[in-house]
């Protein structure tokens, strides 16, 4: 992918991220005392200005505002400025109501600030709605015939879908696009929202250019508000969709339709697109987990980065294999006789088999350890060599390729196990103050119970009183207060399992809270079935002959989904739709009659409340 395409991807992502502001709605406007209150503004939007023109004019406005002479502080007015209450504006609707996570409409936000952000939001939303269509239309319905630029022998068919098209359009074409966009903004729509802070004029209703709804003036206030809300929400969705498509297009090098038709579901390391290197085919991807990368270490990486990560994995694994032995062997077989440091009267028998040993070894001992390790590292860096199998015995390249692969795989897996084991041993050592062998010999298998625990029961109760529900804090997030709308009672009769976890603030909308619980339970049930199906698929227990005559031999469940024929997917969708309709008729629509969210009535003898 060209540098221009990569730059466009990043720019589009940043633009959409800054443009997507959870916007409020009309309510009352705190005004300046002594001034006339303006009517609540509803929002519509603006068609977009060209990016370059808008950015340039915005920069000019910012520079002009910076060079203005500061107002004289001699005259002070008694007028108090209040933050504009935007929670009643169009756009504050279900399910999030007034959503302003970044705090744009908090302290210091005026009506002018809100109008500017609403105009920007509408403009970006309208642009992204058109751009989203432009990202998929050419691949579905085809491109124009003829030439885009006869002088450069460039046909419309030569322009790819997606951000790669940016580098294909000639400079004269971009100038024409910017000119037409500017004429539409300034002459046709008479948009006055140029100039940025202190210069732009947004009118009584930002984004309303008097064009109406398909040329029709909507008279009914309720219908008009519905249409404006719909436009705003569609624009928000389009901004998110456009951001996702541009980023994925930049990562894969394919347009959305090309990705779907090629079965390119993941943009990372599947042999296609920008990250073509596939680490799942490398040594170490084996049953039962296959290719396992829970921390996403290979996301956005190439083969060189993989080799570097593999080298670190092997090195840490080898060290942890030795360290795990070192945490156990001294307690089982005894320590060396004699002195570790005669000058300090420190014997080997004085060194514990715990992490406390770190503080027992003198400084000169650590320097010797580091010097030896550094010399080995430097030698391997300058003169890398194959140590053979067994290592250091001089038997080089004696294994057959198949046997060598088996030995290397065993080393990787043993190193992984040793890293997990070492982490657990150190953590349990820190919790109990005992080595692993001491824990087993004393029966201290639970580090949190009994006389071996680092904190007794009274200390743990004190911590719970300070950070838990006893202090008015969330059980799930002990340092945060209980979210509005939740009880933080795990045995709540209505919402069992309420542990005060609501970082997004969904529970504020009490009217939709039963629906949220319904959705949570439905998703949980579906995921439980999906995990079961995933396990069955990877274990090889399939029912291929009874489902389809088409081959479904993939061990990858996600890839197997692409092998189900269209008729099969239609059947699945029909079954899901009928199930959802039944659930709506028998559960969701009967909340007011006492039916609890998620209660499908399959177990009439089940208790209706928690103990």
TrEMBL record:
Biased composition (Polar residues): 32-45
UniProtKB keywords: Chlorophyll, Chloroplast, Chromophore, Photosynthesis, Plastid
Disordered: annotated segments: 26-45
GO CC aspect terms: chloroplast; membrane
Pfam families hit by this protein: Chloroa_b-bind (PF00504)
Binding site for chlorophyll a 5: 234
Residues that bind chlorophyll b 1: 126
Molecular function GO labels: chlorophyll binding
Chloroplast keyword on record: yes
Top-rank taxon: Eukaryota
Ligand binding (chlorophyll a 1): 99, 121, 124, 231, 236, 248
GO terms classed as biological process: photosynthesis, light harvesting
Compartment(s) of residence: Plastid, Chloroplast
Protein name: Light-harvesting complex I LH38 protein
Organism expressing this protein natively: Symbiodinium necroappetens
């Amino acid at each position: 992918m060209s540098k221009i395409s990569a730059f466009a991807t990043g720019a589009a992502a940043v633009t959409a991220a800054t443009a997507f502001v959870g916007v409020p709605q009309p309510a009352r406007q705190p005004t300046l005392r002594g001034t006339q209150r303006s009517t609540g503004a509803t929002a519509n939007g603006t068609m977009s200005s060209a990016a370059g023109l808008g950015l340039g004019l915005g920069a000019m406005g910012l520079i002009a505002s910076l060079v203005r002479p500061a107002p004289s502080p001699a005259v002070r007015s008694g007028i108090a400025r209040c933050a504009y209450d935007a929670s009643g504006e169009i756009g504050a609707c279900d399910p999030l109501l007034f959503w302003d996570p970044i705090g744009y409409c908090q302290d210091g936000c005026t009506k002018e600030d809100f109008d500017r952000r609403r105009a920007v939001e509408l403009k970006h939303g309208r642009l992204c709605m058109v751009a989203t269509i432009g990202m998929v239309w050419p691949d579905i319905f085809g491109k124009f015939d003829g030439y885009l630029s006869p002088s450069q022998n460039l046909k419309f068919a030569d322009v790819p879908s997606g951000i790669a098209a940016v580098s294909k359009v000639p400079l004269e074409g971009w100038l024409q696009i910017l000119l037409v966009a500017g004429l539409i903004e300034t002459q046709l729509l008479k948009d006055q929202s140029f100039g940025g802070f202190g210069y732009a004029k947004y009118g009584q209703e930002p984004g309303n250019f008097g064009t109406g709804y398909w040329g029709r003036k909507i008279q009914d206030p309720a219908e008009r508000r519905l249409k404006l809300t719909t436009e705003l929400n569609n624009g928000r969705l389009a901004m998110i969709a456009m951001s996702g498509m541009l980023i994925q297009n930049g990562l894969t090098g394919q347009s959305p339709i090309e990705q779907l038709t090629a079965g390119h579901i993941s943009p990372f390391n599947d042999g296609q697109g920008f990250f073509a290197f596939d680490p799942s085919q490398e040594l170490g991807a084996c049953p039962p987990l296959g290719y396992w990368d829970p921390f996403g270490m290979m996301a956005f990486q190439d083969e060189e980065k993989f080799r570097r990560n593999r080298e670190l994995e092997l090195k840490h694994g080898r060290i942890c294999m030795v360290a795990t032995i070192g945490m156990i062997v001294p307690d089982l077989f005894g320590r060396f006789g004699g002195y570790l440091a005669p000058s300090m009267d420190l014997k080997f028998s004085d060194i514990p088999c715990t992490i406390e040993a770190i503080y027992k070894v003198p400084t000169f001992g650590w320097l010797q350890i580091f010097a030896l390790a550094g010399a080995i590292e430097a030698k391997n860096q300058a003169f890398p060599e194959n140590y053979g199998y067994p290592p250091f015995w001089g038997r080089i390249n004696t294994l057959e390729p198949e046997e060598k692969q088996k030995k290397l795989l065993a080393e990787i897996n043993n190193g992984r196990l040793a890293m997990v084991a070492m982490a657990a041993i150190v953590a349990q050592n820190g919790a109990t103050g005992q080595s692993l062998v001491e824990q087993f010999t004393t029966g201290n298998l639970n580090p949190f119970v009994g006389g071996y625990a680092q904190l007794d029961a009274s200390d743990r109760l004190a911590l719970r009183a300070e950070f838990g529900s006893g202090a008015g804090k969330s059980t799930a997030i002990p340092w945060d207060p209980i979210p509005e709308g939740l009880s933080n009672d795990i045995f709540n009769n209505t919402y069992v399992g309420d542990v005060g976890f609501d970082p997004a603030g969904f529970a504020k909308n009490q009217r939709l809270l039963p629906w949220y619980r319904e959705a949570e339970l439905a998703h949980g049930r579906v995921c439980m079935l999906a995990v079961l199906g995933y396990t069955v698929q990877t274990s090889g227990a399939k029912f291929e002959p009874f489902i389809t005559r088409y081959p479904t031999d993939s061990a990858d469940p996600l890839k197997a989904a692409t092998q189900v024929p269209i008729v099969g997917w239609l059947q699945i969708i029909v079954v899901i739709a009928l199930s959802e309709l039944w659930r709506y008729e028998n559960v969701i629509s009967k909340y007011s009659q006492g039916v609890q969210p998620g209660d499908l009535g399959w177990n009439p003898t089940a208790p209706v409340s928690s103990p």
